[in-house]
Amino acid sequence: MIEPGLIRVFRYFTGVAMIYYALVAGYTALQTRSGAVPQQLLLYVNFGTNLILFGYLSWQWLERRLGRWYLPIALMTASVIPIFSNLIYFVDPAVDLSESITRSWIILPILLVPLVLIAWQYRFRYVLLFILFTAAIQLFILLPVASPINFETVPYLGIPIVQAFAFGIVGHIVSRLMNIQRTQRKQLIQANVQLAQHANTLEQLAVSRERNRLARELHDTLAHTLSGLAVNLEALKITLNENPLEANILVDHALENTRTGLTDTRRALKNLRAQHLEDLGLELAIKNLAENAASRAGFKLDFNVFTPLPELTPDVDQCIYRITQESLENIIRHAKAQHVTIQLQQGGDRFELSIQDDGVGFDTSDMDLDHKLGIRGMRERAAVVGGSFKVNSKPQVGTVIHLSVEGSS
């Protein structure tokens, strides 16, 4: 996997270099009134190389097509062509060896960029291979020019060695910094996983406590009410024919206990509703839910509300919130998505919810969706409020969840 931001930096460099060589080549041609001197030929080669690289790095189809060879090809092109184009300086008979070598130092910053990118992306051994490769080619170029080797030409042959030493220091520093960053990134991911696990544990504990509290409350209210009602009905059954006045009193007590139990039951059931819906409303509750899922899974989120949301019944609010929650959990666990789009809008008298991801997807024709508990649960929730629930998915394309319910309360 290519490091984040590397291709963008590489493309930025080739774009700047392309513009620079074009301007310098044009200016030189105007000054010399010639377009064939060695220096200009070198400018043309560098301009063409960076132009090709800029187009190559901007074509995402090639990245998908070439896979892991995409970046090495670009780095090889950015390194080899400038080195061999530098031979132009050594074929100019009007320039002596010292001046040719001095001019050839212009290649140093050109090679420095591929060096940094290699250290950024790969291990240090690949940096060493790059350094040895560039030094060997430059020595191969210099040896015939510097012949015969003597006291005067030896310093020139040492230039590639000095350059290799400098490249080694730069490559080592960048490679070490990237290793530290990768280690920190890995530790951060592990910390996030642990935090997510802790949060899930706390959530489970909170749910367990809430269930226990509701169980106690239902036992203290509904169970006692029903027990009292059963006793009243048994007494009513005995006294109904013998003492009608007492029977009426028992009926009144039974009705009062029933109303009290019904009120307590409704209050207990209300506590089962999502608290975010009560505090924030549907739109903000879903947005917070989606942003939390995006931060956990690392996908890009687009949250769109096209029209002001209508007033919906509490049951419909609850249905929409829970279906969104289940869909996002499925995306986190199974989809491996990079981008998720959630849309809320009203079309005519219907409220529309759409959740789309670009994950791995699945073949709906080969899968019995009714046996998938999550999808079956969402479909049942939609049916309870009279809504329409649909799932469309294709392998390696993604999945679309669509819910349509009555828009008026």
Structure, described:
There is one protein chain. The protein is of the alpha+beta class. The chain folds into 3 domains: 6-157, no CATH class; 199-270; 280-406, 2-Layer Sandwich (Heat Shock Protein 90), CATH 3.30.565. The chain has helices at 6-32, 38-58, 60-66, 70-85, 97-104, 107-121, 124-146, 154-157, 159-239, 244-270, 275-280, 282-297, 314-335, 373-384; strands at residues 300-305, 339-347, 350-357, 388-394, 398-406. The longest helix is centred in the middle third of the chain and has 81 residues, at 159-239. The protein is elongated.
Question: Layout of SSEs?
Answer:
Layout: H1 6-32, H2 38-58, H3 60-66, H4 70-85, H5 97-104, H6 107-121, H7 124-146, H8 154-157, H9 159-239, H10 244-270, H11 275-280, H12 282-297, E1 300-305, H13 314-335, E2 339-347, E3 350-357, H14 373-384, E4 388-394, E5 398-406
Parallel strand pairs: 1-2
Antiparallel strand pairs: 2-3, 3-5, 4-5
- Structural classification: alpha+beta
Neighbour order of strands in the largest sheet: 1-2-3-5-4
The arrangement of helices and strands along the chain is HHHHHHHHHHHHEHEEHEE
Extended strand count: 5
Rg (C-alpha, Å): 37 Å
Morphology call: elongated
Mean pLDDT: 81
Tally the helices. 14
Largest sheet: 5 strands, mixed
- Domain unit count: 3
Percent in helix: 55-70%
How much of the polypeptide forms β-strand, as a percent range? 5-15%
The stretches of 5 or more residues where confidence is low (pLDDT under 50) are: none
Distance between the first and last residues' Cα:
50 Å
